[in-house]
């Protein structure tokens, strides 16, 4: 059985964003604008995405 994955792309820059939100973006593995990561779909990852939902786009 393969694990479900989720693709996350950083679509907005981090200038003027709260420090805690910058850390959440970094925890997702995103550094630059338009960076994309394929992450394991877990409650922890979903929570990070929910925190910075205005900065990222989820592509299934």
Give a short overview.
With 60 residues, the protein is α+β, with helices and mostly antiparallel strands.
- Fill in the CATH topology: Ribosomal Protein L30, Chain: A
Characterize the main sheet: 3 strands, antiparallel
Taking all Cα atoms into account, the compactness measure Rg is: 11 Å
* Order of SSEs: EHEHE
Poorly predicted parts: none
Please give the share of residues in helix: 25-40%
Per DSSP E runs of 2 or more residues, the count of β-strands stands at 3
- Tell me the β content: 25-35%
Structural class: alpha+beta
| CATH class type | Alpha Beta
Alpha-carbon distance between the termini? 18 Å
Number of domains: 1
Average pLDDT, all residues: 95
Task: Quickly give the CATH architecture.
Answer: 2-Layer Sandwich
How large is the count of helical segments?
Answer: 2
User: Which descriptor suits the 3D outline?
Assistant: globular
Q: Widest sheet: strand order?
A: 2-1-3
What is the CATH H-level superfamily? Ribosomal protein L30/L7
Would you kindly provide a written description of the structure presented here, covering whatever features stand out?
The protein is an alpha+beta fold. It has one domain (5-59): Ribosomal Protein L30, Chain: A, CATH 3.30.1390.20. It has 2 helices and 3 strands. It has helices at residues 19-27, 43-51, and strands at residues 5-10, 36-40, 56-59. The mean pLDDT is 95.
Task: Show the helix and strand layout.
Elements: E1 5-10, H1 19-27, E2 36-40, H2 43-51, E3 56-59
Antiparallel strand pairs: 1-2, 1-3
């Amino acid at each position: 059985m393969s694990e479900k994955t989720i693709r996350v792309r950083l679509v907005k820059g981090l200038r003027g964003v709260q420090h805690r939100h910058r850390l959440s973006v970094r925890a997702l593995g995103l550094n630059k604008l338009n960076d994309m990561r394929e992450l394991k779909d877990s409650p922890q990852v979903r929570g990070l995405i929910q925190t910075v939902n205005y900065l990222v786009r989820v592509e299934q």
